[in-house]
């Protein structure tokens, strides 16, 4: 069975946290490690460094699973913040073997309506919030998650000043806040 | 807690949530977030977006023994869960700053003390804690890049306004300021700094070579 339902993934993290459940951990690993590798490759790491990073992130998942609180964050949000914290750690970032990210390999596909309809709870809300942005806003926001120089790259790509990219990004974030903050 | 007037820009909070800020900058933003529920909520929202983006990424094949190697590592170190312990004695610091060791307090001029925060440096950028007495000014310094400040206690005033606990100020090369502490108690602030600090006055110039901050 594919553990792709968000709350199912959360239960797997709890099983690791409470019982050191290796079977549950294996399923989390199968689901997240290959995506974390993609994440870092898109952020500009070479495949080897991205794989080391995915391993490191999953090791942290094992070690911190007991701290996971499903009432505070969904499984993928929690794992994203673990990966994010590793990425911020400058000492580790040195080892990521950064190269210039290639914009063509960055995601720019719009949210698919079927994800919006079938995705569960929070995933569906985030998905429809992103879908409510203009295509350009959505692209600027998405690119911002993948690499530091995103704004300069976008400005060059779209032929608009950096300040304009930043103000469009700001508007997009304010829009997302509005769409995602009510009734939480 | 007094109301927080000055917050990081939306794009700085997104860069924090996304993990694209440099470590020293992220530490100062994290201190602000722990004092500002409003910024914290926005960051949580942006982390949900991050979780969603991870979920949507296509998987990339890992090396053949990736999982087995990881379990071997876990077995080798006992697989214990980690508990984040405080690494310094300043119990009044916001929780994100308690995870870093601190250097000794150093004298930087009358009523001005500074200690380094053990966040790994990124290039020239590092984190410092300043403690400045009422009525004193921040030491003169150049801005060779960005400078992020979060006030932890007390307050200071500069051309941009009055900054109290939790307030966040972003300065860059274009900013030329020497904030003055206007609270009754010393002002404690945490700063991520790129440029050099130039000590003013004869004494400052004498100790400059030793004060490499």
UniProtKB/TrEMBL annotation, chain A:
Protein name listed in UniProt: RNA polymerase sigma-70 factor, ECF subfamily
SUPFAM superfamilies, alphabetized: Sigma2 domain of RNA polymerase sigma factors, Sigma3 and sigma4 domains of RNA polymerase sigma factors
RNA polymerase sigma-70 region domain sequence ranges: 28-95
GO biological process: DNA-templated transcription initiation
Keyword Endoplasmic reticulum appears in the UniProt entry: no
Keyword Transcription regulation appears in the UniProt entry: yes
Organism of this sequence: Kaistia soli DSM 19436
Protein keywords: Sigma factor, Transcription, Transcription regulation
GO MF term set: DNA binding; sigma factor activity
RNA polymerase sigma factor 70 region 4 type domain residues: 125-175
InterPro entries named among the record's database cross-references: RNA_pol_sigma-70-like (IPR039425), RNA_pol_sigma-70_dom (IPR014284), RNA_pol_sigma70_r2 (IPR007627), RNA_pol_sigma70_r4_t2 (IPR013249), RNA_pol_sigma_r2 (IPR013325), RNA_pol_sigma_r3/r4-like (IPR013324), WH-like_DNA-bd_sf (IPR036388)
Family label: Belongs to the sigma-70 factor family. ECF subfamily.
Phylogenetic lineage: Bacteria, Pseudomonadati, Pseudomonadota, Alphaproteobacteria, Hyphomicrobiales
TrEMBL record, chain B:
Pfam families: Cupin_7
InterPro entries, A to Z: Anti-sigma_ChrR, Anti_sigma_zinc_sf, ChrR-like_cupin_dom, RmlC-like_jellyroll, RmlC_Cupin_sf
ChrR-like cupin domain: residues covered: 104-192
Name listed for the protein in its UniProt record: Anti-ECFsigma factor, ChrR
Organism annotation: Kaistia soli DSM 19436
Lineage, opening ranks: Bacteria, Pseudomonadati, Pseudomonadota, Alphaproteobacteria, Hyphomicrobiales
């Amino acid at each position: 069975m594919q553990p792709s339902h968000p709350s199912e993934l959360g239960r797997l993290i709890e099983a690791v946290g409470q019982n050191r459940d290796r079977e549950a951990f294996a399923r989390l690993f199968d689901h997240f490690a290959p995506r974390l590798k993609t994440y870092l490759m898109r952020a500009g790491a070479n495949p080897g460094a991205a794989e080391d990073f995915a391993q490191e992130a999953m090791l942290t998942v094992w070690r911190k699973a007991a701290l996971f609180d499903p009432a505070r964050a969904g499984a993928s949000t929690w794992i994203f913040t673990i990966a994010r914290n590793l990425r911020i750690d400058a000492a580790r970032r040195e080892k990521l073997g950064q190269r210039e990210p290639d914009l063509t390999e960055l995601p720019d596909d719009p949210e698919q309506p079927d994800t919006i309809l079938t995705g569960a709870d929070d995933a569906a809300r985030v998905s429809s919030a992103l879908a409510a942005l203009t295509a350009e806003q959505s692209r600027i926001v998405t690119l911002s998650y993948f690499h530091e120089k995103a704004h300069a790259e976008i400005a060059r790509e779209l032929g608009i000043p950096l300040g304009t990219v930043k103000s469009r990004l700001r508007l997009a974030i304010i829009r997302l806040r509005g769409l995602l903050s009510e009734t939480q | 807690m007094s109301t927080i007037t000055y917050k990081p820009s939306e794009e700085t909070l997104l860069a924090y949530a996304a993990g694209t800020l440099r470590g020293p900058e992220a530490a100062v933003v994290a201190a602000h977030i722990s004092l500002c529920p409003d910024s914290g909520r926005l960051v949580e929202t942006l982390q949900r977006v991050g979780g969603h983006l991870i979920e949507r990424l296509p998987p990339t094949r890992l090396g053949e023994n990736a999982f087995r190697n990881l379990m071997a590592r876990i077995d080798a170190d006992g697989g214990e869960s980690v508990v984040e312990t405080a690494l310094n004695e300043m119990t009044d610091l916001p929780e994100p700053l308690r995870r870093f060791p601190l250097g000794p307090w150093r004298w930087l001029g009358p009523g001005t003390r500074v200690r380094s925060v053990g966040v790994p440096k990124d290039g020239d950028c590092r984190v410092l804690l300043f403690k400045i007495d009422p009525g004193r000014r921040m030491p003169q310094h150049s801005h060779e890049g960005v400078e992020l400040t979060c006030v932890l206690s007390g307050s200071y005033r500069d051309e941009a306004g009055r900054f109290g606990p939790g307030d966040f100020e972003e300065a860059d090369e274009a900013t030329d300021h020497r904030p003055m502490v206007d609270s009754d108690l010393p002002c404690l602030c945490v700063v991520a700094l790129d440029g050099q600090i130039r000590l003013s006055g004869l004494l400052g110039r004498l100790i400059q070579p030793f004060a490499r901050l």
